[in-house]
Structures are given as structure tokens and as C-alpha cells.
Amino acid sequence: MQSPCIGRCDPNSAICPGCGRTDKEICNWMFYTDEERATIMQRLKDNGYGRNESDEAENKGGSVFGRKGKEWKLPPINEV
Question: By C-alpha distance, which of 23, 44, 30, 27 is closest to 1?
Fold first, then answer.
């Protein structure tokens, strides 16, 4: 199942700064039909979110998040 996730999530945001999906879209992603996911993916792409070609090339055989070998530093949970 294809996903626009790039591993730059912010649980305190209504719109994910990494992929551009709403929290509802993220939670329901696995339940959407292929057509529904394709529509959302196109909207995200049009708005400049999600994976790009360099992410896809880098992810060949890599992690789910398309950032193999790179670490993301997330803020502590208690920081708002």
C-alpha cells in the first residue's frame, strides 16, 4: 500500500507538516479504497507534500518512511 508519509510527523498539528494529510486521513489511510488514496495523493502532490522522486530513489529497498539511514530529531513530548 502506497503512502505519502515521509516520517516528519507532528502529533500536535491538525495537518501533518511532512505529508500534508489530516489526522483523520492518517488514521483512516488503511481503510480507504485505492481510488480514495489516489485522490488524496494527487491533492497532496499538487500542494507540494509527500514523497518526491529523490525520496523514491533513495528508498529502493529502504524503510517505510523513505529516509533510510537518516534520523529525525523530534521534540520532547512535553514541549508544545
Answer: 30
